[in-house]
Design goal:
The protein is an alpha/beta fold. It has 13 helices and 24 strands. InterPro entries: Ala_racemase/Decarboxylase_C, DAP_deCOOHase_LysA, De-COase2_C, De-COase2_CS, De-COase2_N, Orn/DAP/Arg_de-COase, PLP-binding_barrel.
């Protein structure tokens, strides 16, 4: 995967295909037909890719952890349902995501609620709905959860989210070892444990650790998980009880840019025996449910964002392809969702022969801002009005992570392909 065309080609070969005429296929259906039927812009998700990815990760961590789906990555109930059918629980970050998970058929006791700013209304909804666990991130939230439990006459299972020390940090977006709004700092963990233990309506059952995101190196993830087991042992020692849940977060990454390689699940598997031995050797941890809750890793590779070309122009030596899709639907692809140095996601033409000449192409959207740029120099074949462009790795942090109201364009449809059928799971507009 030395350069962008190779990355795009590798991702298409792994998750999609092209027919003899060079038409991109999703689950055996021509992308051109999907665009004609459902209109553009369009998000298309391949359920078979989601299932294959989920099963591969479960097999890699078997005997150590179970795998849940982080709903924030793609909260469409039809997407959540795919993972629920595979056996996943759900990790949510709002009351609306709780409703989406329930709509997808996830049992409330298999839902975990994280996030640093849980409001009273959301807490009342999930407590009344029998949520499996709430992950506490600050003292005020601790009080709000206890009050909700009191109002509903129940005892709520809770875990502490811990912001770990510097030795546990890792991933492209580091979320540990520095000041953070997320969780209790590790050095304040004992005091937080004591505060929860003093609240009779709260039952401290676990740990939540999330040290980084978009991790592509197995050794980084394995190190974070080992650190998490150490924190879990400290919580169990402080409470004098065995832990029931050890949530080691998500953080598993996918390749977006040239030079990035996919996470090596074989290396993950090879590094687990020591972690499994740690669990089995400690009776306070041996019976705990260890859970990973990735979102991007599971849903991202299965999605395409599809836009239609409206115009092609040359400006002072640069080629611009203007499409009907842009940052208002896919902020991440524009580079405006957390990127410091803006780099291009892998892009592909909807129809492209194997020997098509490619040239650096800027792909822009219809918005009146220079920020609306899906690619700055993507290697693409010659394109004309009416052609299709697809942004790969678009199954996560797409539509709902974007400023859909900006300039008041209609939202795109979302379509799920499975078993040779295409189902509209969110209507256009």
């Amino acid at each position: 995967m030395a350069d962008a065309p190779d990355l795009a080609a590798a991702l298409i070969a792994e998750n999609f295909s092209r027919d003899a005429g060079g038409v991109l296929q999703v689950g055996g259906l021509p992308l051109t037909d999907l665009a004609e039927k459902f209109g553009t812009p369009l998000f298309v998700y391949d359920a078979a890719t989601m299932r294959r990815t989920y099963r591969a990760l479960c097999a890699a961590v078997a005997g150590f952890a179970e795998v849940d789906f982080s709903v924030k990555a793609n909260p469409n109930p039809a997407v959540i349902r795919v993972f629920r059918e595979e056996g996943a629980g759900a990790e949510i970050a709002s009351g609306a995501e709780f409703e989406a998970a329930l709509k997808a058929g996830v049992a409330p006791e298999k839902i975990l609620f994280a996030g640093p700013g849980k409001g009273t209304a959301d807490l009342d909804r999930v407590v009344a709905g029998g949520i499996g666990e709430i992950h506490l991130e600050n003292r005020e939230e601790m009080v709000r959860v206890a009050a909700a439990a009191e109002r509903h006459g129940v005892t709520v299972r809770v875990a502490l989210r811990i912001n770990p020390g510097a030795t546990a940090q890792g991933g492209a977006m580091r979320m540990g070892g520095k000041p953070s709004p997320f969780g209790f700092d590790e050095e304040a963990m004992d005091a937080a444990i004591d505060a929860v233990e003093a609240m009779p309506r709260l039952r401290l059952v676990g740990l939540h650790l999330f040290a980084g995101t978009q991790g592509l190196k197995a050794e980084t993830l394995l190190g974070q998980w080992a650190y998490g087991l150490g924190l879990a042992a400290r919580i169990a020692q402080r409470t004098g009880r065995a832990l029931e849940t050890i949530d080691l977060g998500g953080g598993l990454g996918i390749p977006y840019f040239s030079g990035e390689a996919a996470l090596d699940l074989g290396a993950i598997r090879a590094g687990l025996p020591d972690l499994i031995a740690t669990l089995r050797a400690d009776p306070r941890l041996a019976g705990a449910r260890v859970v990973l809750e990735p979102g991007r890793y599971l849903a991202g590779p299965a999605g395409l964002y599809v836009a239609r070309v409206l115009a092609v122009k040359d400006s002072r030596g640069s080629r611009f392809v203007i499409t009907d899709g842009g940052m208002h639907h896919h902020l991440a692809a524009s580079g405006n969702l957390g990127q410091i140095v803006k780099r291009d996601f892998p892009l592909a033409a909807g129809v492209e022969g194997p020997e098509a000449p490619r040239a650096a192409t800027a792909v822009v959207g219809p918005l009146c801002t220079p920020l609306d740029m899906l690619a700055r120099a993507a290697p693409l074949p010659p394109l004309a009005e009416g052609d299709l462009v697809a942004v790969l790795q678009s199954g996560a942090y797409g539509l709902t992570a974007s400023p859909t109201g900006f300039l008041s364009h209609p939202t795109p449809a979302e379509v799920l392909v499975e078993g040779g059928r295409a189902e509209m799971i969110r209507a256009r507009g």
